[in-house]
User: Fold this.
Amino acid sequence: MAGEKNVQAQDINQLLKVRRDKLKELQDNGKDPFVITKYDVTHHSQEVKDNFETLEGQSVSLAGRVMSKRVMGKASFCHIQDLQGTIQSYVARDSIGEEEYKAFKKMDIGDIVGLKGEVFKTKTGEISIHASEVTLLSKSLQILPEKFHGLTNTDIRYRQRYVDLIMNPEVKDTFIKRSHIIKEIRNFLDGRGFMEVETPMLVSNAGGAAARPFATHYNALDEDVKLRISLELYLKRLIVGGLERVYEIGRVFRNEGVDTRHNPEFTLMELYQAYTDYEGMMELTESMFRYLAEKVCGSAVIKYNETVIDMSKPFERITMIDAVKKYSGVDFSQVADDEEAKALADEHHIEYEARHKKGDIINLFFEEFCEDKMIQPTFVMDHPVEISPLTKKKPENPELVERFELFIYGREMCNAYSELNDPIDQRERFMAQEEAFAAGDEEANHTDEDFLNALEIGMPPTGGIGYGIDRLVMLLTDSQAIRDVLLFPTMKSLEK
Assistant:
């Protein structure tokens, strides 16, 4: 086996040497492709196919990567791949000239070429380009994966996304669709009078979420700073400042593990709207998800992992306590205190920490018994106050808050509040978070004095929400892992 690998390595090294020799020959003859600075592209592959009737017999100019080549004496065929797909070209010696045809025959799979010629259809009915000119624009010095097996090793695919995009057309489609999704989010929110803003990534206090931050040092100020874990606290400052509807789409950073749904840096969108509450956020979310599915997928009824997800109907609504009662049989509205809640956790084999209170136990029950049952779009509402430090309490029950999470296919898609705007209550919540941190909760929030000062200036009643854009893209592109929707996901260094 080792011998076979050595032979393969020698063969590859020889092929790589041949490519470099070809480049040197071109350079020695004054035909270095790397000195070319531009090429006039008039059309792309799919554009030619879609407009064949008007383009037939017309001269067009395309550029792309040679993906296949079949040389047959005085005439050859090749396929080039561009942004829109692939198209065939018929390259004949009598059409491009003897010297140019010799140069074409020496080109390799993976080379980038410019192609000029007339649009025609072959005897087999394939729309093609009858080349009058083929220009080598860039020499590929590496070898693309073998055509029929493609690039299937997922680790290599993620590390070398540029090769993945070349070899797997569906991957390119996913990322084109991702761009379309984000564009339509902006269109939807702009249509509702929201303003897009940008807030700091390097912060002295990384708050707004339960997560461990990445820490770094700011040399110029000789201060330790953190990478933001959410967008919340700065966007709320803007609501205080009178910008009534704001949103931001940006990277946030959480010092946590990597799995099919988590990446340490990911794209979050948060929006805040003055003079509304979490009910308003539910309406906005339901309308936006339906709009995105229709715009991007063509229908509000989509398939994810062979499961039909129907976003055309009103989304289900259930309180967290009712969900726990429904799927575990435990009614926490009848549970008196923390000790009784912990006894129920022991009885149901739910692990918890000594610092956990009744509200934390309710959330642990929900995660264990309920999350994976929420397949169709479901708003889970009215969370315990202990797990919601930035949320308004329900007036009729101060143990709960006006908060919801949207679940689809058992996954949290967003998290929303009627935002806490009482600075005295907020200070008490921060104090409780500081106590939790002291008791060992590394994800607890810290007191943000400037944010408290902003609340004391006065924040109107406000609804706010955060969306995991990557999970939304996963849903709308039927992608099974978050790495499939991140162009360059976090990977462990190969040097370790």
In short: The mean pLDDT is 94. The CA atoms of residues 1 and 7 lie 10 Å apart. The longest helix spans residues 2-28. The first strand starts at residue 59 and ends at 72.
